[in-house]
Write a structure and sequence with these properties.
heterodimer, A: alpha/beta, Rossmann fold, 4-stranded antiparallel sheet, 10 strands, globular, B: mainly alpha, MetI-like fold, 2 domains, two-stranded antiparallel ribbon, 78% helix, binds adenosine-5'-triphosphate, binds magnesium ion, membrane (chain B), MetI-like (chain B), MetI-like_sf (chain B)
């Protein structure tokens, strides 16, 4: 495709704080194809949520901007649905009503009452939450709440799905299950997804491209990694795929060697940021292998 | 702005009531007994102390009444009430009989039945007070909740009215009363008044003093809606009204109710003072009349009123709590 679906150009984000402006993002450039699954990975506090919020329209970049299908993004809207870092369900509504609130708003005119009901149930079924329709937030687990948040976002039929660590709060089993569902849903709908994650295996398994961010302040995109693994992907067979192992090591090496200590002295950080521009090489340090053994995907596999 | 929480002072009563309800819902009797034991001991000790201490306090109207005298006067007041009722009923029957006679002689005659002119009893005064307090409280709620929502939603408006709220909030009902009385006398002129002026004066004073907790709690509740939920609302592009109805209001209901309960407590306290001072009918006037009366029974009768006031205040709060449990999602 010649023209990109979603494009961030030269984005800078400075927050007003009481010690003057704090530049969280600087020179963020990103072009995303329609139907692409993109993961954002980086250390805590580097500015991943900020990027996502700019695409969502919840934050206004202080310089540069975001264009979706030729239109500049400056307000939030349901065509860019968000799965928030912490489910963000209305605690006074039931599981069903939470999804209903979104469906009613987005398909008020285009769907009949019966169609809406079926659509809500369909989406809750996708995340396996159709057994708890009348439960409230206080009565379901964190993982269940996160699933409802995903169902709510999917139910908006967004052209871009923005997910902020959607599986962060889940146990390994549920997480694996939802990752598989998400892969299938995304393939069926060919939706564009930007997902923030801390989990290297998750990023490699799900993504077409992994965008690695440098540490803040003034964080930017350090490296991009195209994942050319065949789809549909299977976590079990993939675990021993030589390419898969190589991709994981590339990400791990970026995170734990080039961007190791977030918030260390300025000098060193600048040097590291500069290093990050250098392309990835094979890296087999024992430390890296150790870390990877702790990953949940590995345990499931 | 400060938030008001009423829960601490209530915990004892709450536990006591929960003990009662749990008994009904089939908890083990032993458990219930244990939960009721301490409150019972507390009340018994208090009564004992009161009984012993009261005769030691000599006043110009005799010794301070002990529990026995107060109990006796409670019966007495009830007796007076039922006597009054009987007489009123008789009064009406007499009129009806007379009217029948008149109608028998002249079918076109105009007949009417007058109300019994006797003085209101203690029980009548209780109901008058309850009516006034509810009217004042409802008016306060109607003003405070919408205003609180506007203040909570709009930072500029909030900054503009916050100093006013802070200044008017601590004003005592006694200070408002003369002003309210004069304004009501001057503005509420009607040949066939729907309300008594004294009723209006007490009610407006109650409103003025009791709307602040609800106002403040509503505005704090509204401005403290979880920012993530506000983001959800933005992503969904909810209209202003849907946003208020579906997100802001439900989210602040718990805070609003905490405010309402404090407001109702204040309303009840203020009302008694207003009635005493304004000589408007109600429990406050009963207390004042007994005080002026100065008979040997007056102190006991005032003590009955004191206990009744406390008990009704407690009851009002329980009712609010029951409503809160029905309405609020976090209960
Ligand atoms: N509203 C704000 N005002 C001031 N600073 C902010 C604001 N929002 C974010 N920041 C700062 O911007 C930086 C990036 O924050 P952001 O939430 O995007 O990080 P993140 O990568 O999502 O972190 P995490 O992985 O922990 O969620 C942080 O240093 C944070 O302190
Ligand atoms: Mg974040």
């Amino acid at each position: 495709m010649s023209k990109s679906h979603l494009e961030l150009t030269n984005v800078q984000m400075a927050f007003d704080t009481k010690d003057g402006p704090f530049v969280a993002l600087e020179n963020v450039d990103l072009k995303i194809r329609k139907g692409e699954f993109l993961s954002l990975i980086g250390h805590s506090g580097c500015g991943k949520s900020t990027v996502l919020n700019i695409v969502a329209g919840l934050l206004q970049a202080t310089r540069g901007g975001c264009v979706l299908d030729g239109h500049e993004v400056n307000t939030p809207g349901p065509e860019r649905a968000v799965v928030f870092q912490n489910h963000s369900l209305m605690p006074w509504l039931t599981v069903y009503e939470n999804v209903e609130l979104a469906v009613q708003q987005v398909f008020k005119k285009s769907m009949s009452k019966k169609e809406r009901r079926e659509w809500i149930l369909h989406n809750l079924k996708l995340v396996n939450m159709d057994h708890a329709l009348d439960k409230r937030l206080g009565e379901i687990s964190g993982g269940m709440a996160q699933r409802v948040g995903i169902a709510r976002a999917l139910a908006m039929k967004p052209s871009v799905l923005l997910m902020d660590e959607p599986f962060g709060a889940l146990d390994a089993l549920t997480r694996a299950h939802l990752q598989d569902s998400l892969m299938k849903i995304q393939q069926d709908l060919n939706s564009t997804v930007i997902m923030i994650t801390h989990d290297v295996d998750e990023a490699v398994l799900l993504s077409d491209r992994i965008v690695m961010m440098t540490n803040g302040p003034a964080a930017t995109i350090g490296e991009e990694l195209h994942i050319d693994l065949p789809r549909p992907r299977n976590r079990v067979t993939l675990a021993d795929h030589p390419e898969y192992v190589r991709y994981r090591q590339a990400v791990l090496s970026f995170l734990y060697e080039k961007q190791r200590f977030p918030g260390k002295e300025e000098n060193e950080q600048e040097k590291q940021t500069a290093d990050a521009e250098v392309p990835v090489q094979e890296d087999n340090s024992p430390e890296v292998v150790n870390k990877s053994e702790e990953s949940p995907v590995r345990r499931i596999a | 702005m400060t938030t008001l929480s009423h829960t601490d002072s209530l915990s004892q009563g709450q536990r006591w009531l929960r003990a009662l309800t749990e008994k009904l819902s089939g908890r083990s009797l032993a458990e219930t007994g244990r939960q009721l034991l301490l409150p019972t001991i507390g009340i018994a000790l208090f009564l004992g102390f009161w009984h012993l201490a009261a005769p030691q306090v000599q006043t110009s109207l005799g010794a301070f009444p002990g529990p026995a005298q107060v109990l006796e006067q409670t019966g007495q007041l009830w007796q007076e009430h039922s006597n009054q009722r009987d007489r009123a009923a008789q009064f009406v029957t007499m009129q009806e009989q007379r009217n029948e006679r008149i109608l028998a002689e002249n079918p076109d005659a105009e007949v009417k039945i007058r109300d019994y002119p006797g003085a209101p009893t203690f029980i009548d005064q209780i109901f008058t007070s309850l009516g006034t307090v509810l009217a004042g409280f409802v008016l306060a709620t109607i003003i405070a909740v919408p205003l609180g929502i506007i203040i909570g939603l709009n930072r500029h408006f909030s900054a503009a009215v916050n100093p006013l709220i802070q200044i008017f909030k601590p004003v005592s009902p006694l200070a408002w009363l003369p002003l309210v009385t004069m304004v009501v006398s001057a503005t509420y002129v009607s040949d066939d008044p729907m309300f008594e002026k004294s009723f209006l004066t007490s009610m407006i004073t109650v409103t003025l003093c009791s709307l602040w907790p609800t106002l403040i709690n509503t505005s704090v509740g509204v401005s403290a809606v979880n920012p993530d939920l506000l983001n959800v609302s933005k992503v969904l592009r909810l209209s202003f009204w849907t946003h208020v109805r579906k997100v802001v209001l439900p989210s602040s209901v718990p805070m609003i109710f905490t405010g309402l309960r404090v407001s109702l407590g204040i309303a009840w306290m203020v009302l008694i003072a207003a009635e005493m001072l304004a000589q408007s009918p109600g429990l406050g006037k009963f207390v004042w009349d007994e005080f002026q009366n100065g008979s040997s029974e007056s102190l006991s009768r005032i003590m009955v009123a004191v206990l009744a006031i406390g008990f009704i205040g407690f009851l009002l709060d329980r009712i609010m709590l029951v409503i809160q449990k029905k309405v609020a999602w976090n209960e």
